[in-house]
Amino acid sequence: MAKKGKKKKNAVGADGTQTLATNRRARHDYKILEEFECGIVLLGTEIKSLREGKISLTDAFATVDNGEVFLRNLHIPEYSMGSWTNHSPKRTRKLLLHRREIDKIMGQVRDGNKTLIPLKVYLRNGYAKLELGLAQGKQDYDKREDIKRRDQDRDITRELGRRIKGINA
């Protein structure tokens, strides 16, 4: 007999991933040039707090220091059942990437006006993963152009749907 009730907020996908948080503002403010999947070095109370679904990606960014990538300003609140072993919520966390990826990122960030921003935090097979985006900032006119293009595409799709259904409007 199946229980009736609320649907789980963070349902596990077919590939074993469970999305915990997404940075929706990032795609609005930045043009994402490339995406990288990386692991996060976490403490025990941090992963427990993540599993509770408490995480905030606002104002988070990544930097490359001494050949390593670090995530800064990611807010993971203290674990509710933790004691003196709790972590500080906005501590700097190390990201795990391959050397080739780090070298590629270092060259691009150093050369141009590009930055590293977290796009999504998720669990894959029990491990916390982060989708990191190499991004370039958008100007206001670029944002308006994207909104205009999205509205035009929506109108075209709507009109095609009406024509297929035979509705004259």
* Rg measurement, Å: 20 Å
Main sheet characteristics: 7 strands, antiparallel
The end-to-end span amounts to 49 Å
The CATH topology of the largest domain: Small Protein B, Chain: A
CATH superfamily of the largest domain: Small protein B
Structural class: alpha+beta
Helix fraction bin: 25-40%
In CATH, what is the class of the largest domain?
Answer: Mainly Beta
Would you kindly provide a written description of the structure presented here, covering whatever features stand out?
The chain is α+β, with helices and mostly antiparallel strands. The protein folds into two domains: 17-138, Small Protein B, Chain: A (Beta Barrel), CATH 2.40.280; 139-169. The chain contains four helices and seven strands. It has helices at 24-29, 44-51, 99-111, 140-165, and strands at residues 17-22, 30-40, 61-65, 68-72, 93-96, 114-124, 127-137. Strand 3 (61-65) and strand 4 form a beta hairpin. The chain starts with 16 loop residues before the first strand and ends with a helix. Keywords: Cytoplasm, RNA-binding. This is SsrA-binding protein. Belongs to the SmpB family. InterPro entries: SmpB, SsrA-bd_prot, SsrA-bd_prot_CS. Pfam families: SmpB.
Strands, helices and their partners?
Layout: E1 17-22, H1 24-29, E2 30-40, H2 44-51, E3 61-65, E4 68-72, E5 93-96, H3 99-111, E6 114-124, E7 127-137, H4 140-165
Antiparallel strand pairs: 1-6, 2-5, 2-7, 3-4, 4-5, 6-7
